[in-house]
């Protein structure tokens, strides 16, 4: 639930921003010696939080050419400099922005081997108080923009017979969270999409990972309109999710919870939904 960012106030309305030419090419040399193909990774939501941590972790590993996308050009450029990556700032809810990003990636670095779809936004409060525009924004960014981008990069992976799509979900999508009804619905949609797409891609060589983080120490909660005030569970650093993403790519894992114990409440909800709802109503 911690991989979102809000539209930067300095930008008057949504727009697609081309990368600065000084930061438009990765500087890190590929590792692994001759015969090792440097792979291309596209990471969205990379301006901060989980997306930024994933970009830095892949850069540290080496062997990756990175294209990073986010809605805040200045923050994105800083992350791109740290990760020796190519930056393409864009609001993926704009018509055609997803195709511009996909085309830019293909033209600049070649076919995508790894897509980490981390762009997201939250909103906290009772559903009856939620503005209409906030409903649209949460669904557009978390669901529609993600599905459109996957649709654009997936054919190249299938044609190559390899690749992986990593979808950053949330515990809210697995168990539902009070005062986050629309965000919970959006992330539940991502989980269902991941399962269905994985069935379709069986035998193609392309994998789908559903990453399910819990409370992550990022600006997400402030930007959603309500800071995180609970003593438990304690927030974990975004670097922990980034390492889980790297491990999932290397080992081909389908679904990963961060931290791992989050599987327990999900299993309780699945096997004893009545008990889970009573506990959730009592303890929140």
Automatic annotation (TrEMBL):
SUPFAM superfamilies: NAD(P)-binding Rossmann-fold domains
Gene Ontology cellular component list: membrane
MF terms in GO: oxidoreductase activity
PROSITE patterns hit by this protein: ADH_SHORT (PS00061)
Keywords, sorted A to Z: Oxidoreductase
Region (Disordered): 1-38
Biased composition (Basic and acidic residues): 20-31
Ketoreductase domain sequence ranges: 39-219
Identification of the protein by name: Short-chain dehydrogenase
Protein's organism: Streptomyces mutabilis
Taxonomic lineage from the root: Bacteria, Bacillati, Actinomycetota, Actinomycetes, Kitasatosporales
């Amino acid at each position: 639930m911690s991989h979102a960012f809000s539209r930067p106030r300095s930008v008057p309305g949504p727009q697609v921003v081309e990368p600065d030419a000084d930061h438009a090419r990765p500087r890190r040399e590929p590792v692994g010696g001759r015969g090792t193909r440097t792979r291309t990774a596209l990471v969205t939501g990379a301006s901060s939080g989980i997306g930024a941590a994933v970009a830095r972790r892949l850069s540290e590993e080496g062997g990756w050419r990175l294209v990073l996308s986010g809605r805040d050009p200045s923050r994105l450029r800083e992350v791109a400099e740290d990760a020796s990556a190519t930056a393409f700032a864009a609001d993926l809810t704009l018509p055609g922005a997803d195709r511009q990003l996909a085309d830019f990636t293909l033209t600049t670095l070649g076919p995508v081997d790894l897509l980490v779809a981390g762009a997201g936004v939250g909103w906290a409060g009772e559903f009856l108080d939620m503005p209409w525009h906030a409903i649209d924004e949460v669904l557009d960014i978390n669901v529609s923009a993600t599905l459109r981008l996957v649709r654009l990069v997936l054919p190249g992976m299938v044609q190559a017979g390899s690749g992986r799509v990593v979808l950053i979900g949330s515990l809210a999508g697995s168990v539902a969270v009070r005062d986050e009804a629309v965000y919970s619905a959006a992330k539940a949609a991502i989980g269902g999409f991941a399962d269905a797409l994985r069935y379709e891609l069986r035998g193609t060589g392309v994998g789908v990972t559903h990453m399910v983080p819990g409370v992550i120490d990022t600006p997400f909660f402030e930007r959603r309109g309500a800071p995180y005030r609970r003593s438990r569970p304690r927030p974990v650093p975004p670097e922990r999710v980034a390492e889980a993403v790297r491990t999932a790519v290397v080992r081909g894992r389908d679904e990963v919870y961060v931290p791992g114990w989050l599987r327990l409440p999900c299993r309780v909800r699945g096997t004893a939904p009545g008990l889970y709802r009573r506990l959730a109503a009592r303890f929140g």
